[in-house]
Amino acid sequence: MPYVSGQPGDAWAAEAKAQGGKGTQRLVTVETRPASDAVATALKLSAGEPVVLRSRVMLLDDRPVELVDSYYPASIAGGTRLAEVSKIPGGAVAHLTSLGHAPRRVVEDVTARLATPAEAEAFGLELPLAVIELARVLFADDDQPVEASVMLSPADARRLRYEMSL
Q1: Whole-number mean pLDDT of the chain?
Q2: How far apart are alpha carbons 16 and 45 in whole angstroms?
Q3: What is the per-residue pLDDT across 2-54, written as a single tens digit (0 to 9) for each?
Q4: Rounded to whole angstroms, how far apart are CA atoms 29 and 66?
Q5: Is there a contact between 146 and 138 (Cβ–Cβ < 8 Å)?
Q6: 26 φ, ψ to 5°?
């Protein structure tokens, strides 16, 4: 699980390269906003508490393949690179680790559904379009949630692989 290891690097670029492609990302927005009910629940906050949102589009060979919204408690992210409108060298999880919030546990929920018109447009595809939504929460010490992400991708040609050590 290189995406949640806390080690510096660009897991997406490495994964795409291993498959013979070029993986990049485009930062869409970074802003502090009140937490929605769903985000507040995931991050164990009160609804409306401030969170930092980082929205990105993941590209494979310059084609959008994943839409990602990552949320961080403002109490952790405020005043750090997480709140800056720029790419984070080494990645957000490595930055969280450097701030003393190394990932200790991850919970993922995977669902499939039909895309909205806006989502289909973002992918440059037509409706009807099946998408996979992966919601991930990273927990640090004391089971504190430090990141909640929602990743959306077209379901075709998508594979989710999980490997766990017991």
Answers
A1: 91
A2: 35
A3: 556 556 667 767 777 888 889 889 999 999 999 999 999 999 999 999 999 99
A4: 15
A5: yes
A6: -120, 125
Comparing CA positions, the residue from 154, 137, 155 lying closest to residue 146 is: 137
Residues 6+ apart with CB under 8 A from 165: none
Cα distances (angstroms) measured from residue 155 to each of 54, 65, 66, 110, 165: 23, 10, 10, 11, 27
CA 159 to chain centre: 17
Q: 87 phi and psi, to 5 degrees?
A: -65, 145
Q: Which two tokens stand for residue 1?
A: 């699980």
